[in-house]
Automatic annotation (TrEMBL):
InterPro entries: GH. It comes from Sphingobacterium deserti. Keywords: Signal. This is Lipoprotein. The keyword Signal applies. Residues 1-19 form the signal peptide.
Amino acid sequence: MKIGWIILVVFFCCCASPADPPAVSFYYWKTTVQLGDREESTLQLNSSSRLYVRYFDVGLQNGQPFPISAVLFKTIPKQHIIPVVYIKNEVVLSKSIDIPALAQRIVAYLEQINAHYGIETEELQLDCDWSLGSKANFFELLHALRQQRPWRLSCTIRLHQVKYFEKTGIPDVDYGVLMYYNMGTISANQTNSIYDRQTAATYIKRLGKYPLKLKVALPIFSWGIHLRQGKVINLLNKLQEADVYNHSDLKQSENGKFKILREGVYFGQLFAADDEIKLENVSAETLLEMATDLGQHLREKPDEIIFYDLDSTNVNHYEKEIFQKTARLFR
């Protein structure tokens, strides 16, 4: 009998594998889902079994909530799909919103999309940067969605919602996804608005006290900021260093920005002479740094790291092993 128990203990200890790194997953944030070869190979290389797909946004039209930019599936991913619905803060700030009716419409529209494409989902994630003024409505919406279906429910968590959680509250969800990016104001200064370690340090010390189970979302996107006389004009999404270096009409300044030498259309936008482009991205070294810092402050190791977002332009910027390397730092 004692030998039998010893065998069982050894068996369960071997299966538990506490040192296993978190799973690697991705957000897919295009309106049309059509995975290319690079995106498919990235999912396969990282053994990704889940894909977080933006289904639609909810905004206000004539004071009423309305779905915006519904997803179109050209191909159906092999991974388990987790629908993500982005709720604009204006919706949950509204004093006249019928929350139960909104929850019913969200579910009905989601199920309509699933039925059209033959997709089955058992989980829903809401993305909303709720504030003190919209907290009550957002939390009521989460409760109403739970009443609609017995599904797994999650939501995104911003850093300020962690730091001030006594005031911003804890959402009633199965888990949250900590969005560890978009930490600053998009501006002409030298700070990287996607990720700044000094800014992050003012928030992450509170992670050890945050009571909700968390997964972590890390950025792999980039953009260029179009500047004119020190003022932000527009964003150039997915702009990479390779796009601007050695460009005949751009010259890199001492401050690291790229000056437009002559008026023209570049990267789909009209630039005047002397306009500037400020590049913002997250290097592979920075991803590893982020993971190390988070691993030291999270209350418990996350079981999943979700990279934002799966796109050939983004993943081509990194070595193929970077996502696994990053996840392993959370052991």
